Amino acid sequence: MPSALGRRGERTPHAATGAGPADPSARLFVTTVADAGQSVTQLLGPSGAVLVASPSAGRTPLISPRAAAVKSAGTAFVERNVTDLGGRWLLFVAPWPHRGDRLVTGAPLDTFDDAVNRAERDVIIAASLAVLAAAAAGFVITGWALRPVERLRTEASAIVDSDDEGDAARLLPLPGTRDELAALASTLN
Q1: Within its chain, how far is the Cα of 24 from the centroid?
Q2: Helices (H), the chain
Q3: Burial of residue 28, with CB atoms counted within 10 A of its CB: 0-12 exposed, 13-18 middle, 19 or more buried
Q4: Residue 122 pLDDT
Q5: What span, in angstroms and rounded, lies between the C-alpha atoms of 163 and 97?
Q6: What is the Cα–Cα distance from 182 to 172, expressed in whole angstroms?
Q7: Residues 53 and 41: beta-carbon distance below 8 Å
Q8: How many CB atoms lie within 10 A of CB 161?
Q9: Which of 53, 57, 60, 142 could hold 40 in an S-S bridge, CB 3.0 to 4.6 Å?
Q10: Which residues contact 129 (CB under 8 A, 6 or more apart)?
Q11: Least confident of 94-103, 145-154, 166-175
């Protein structure tokens, strides 16, 4: 959200400089900045008075003249509790191209907080599903890998438990591999 807010605040002065010699503020706010939805935008004069505002922003300055003056040298993000708008807002302050005016545009942080909470929930769910899938795959792969060991154990148990003397002389089948399992079968034989 801060990057989208910053892009919106930065594109507005550029659009204003190309809009012609007449004060472009009102037309610009109507066509570009006064987005429908939950965002707010104001153009503040050098004294801090609201020159133009989006309908939802109202006529009370979103940022104090002193704070706006400090931000006039460049762009900045300000987190502020805006009582008139009912909550915490992230405001982007940028210099306007003429007369020392400042553009202030913002969006509610509860929207941002909701998005972060949804993303956290989605990550937890995805991670849980990944752990369950890995555990299931591990169980299946381990069972598959230990199947030859279980065959040897079953065969050895059958030889030991048999009362038939012919079975006692019987040997365990040697796997065709030259690995630890073959060595175990050979040792048991």
Answers
A1: 37
A2: 2-17, 25-28, 65-70, 109-161, 165-168, 180-188
A3: buried
A4: 94
A5: 101
A6: 10
A7: yes
A8: 8
A9: 57
A10: none
A11: 166-175
pLDDT tens-digit profile of 58-99?
788 888 777 776 655 677 777 777 777 777 888 888 887 767
Interstrand relation of 87-95 and 40-44 (parallel, antiparallel or unpaired): unpaired
pLDDT for 123: 94
pTM of structure: 0.47
Torsion of CA 14, 15, 18, 23, to 10 degrees: -110
CA 167 to chain CA centroid, Å, is 65
Residue where the block lists tokens 């989006």: 54
Indicate if the pLDDT at residue 177 is higher than 60: yes
Comparing C-alpha atoms, which of 79, 111, 106, 88 is closest to residue 12? Answer: 106
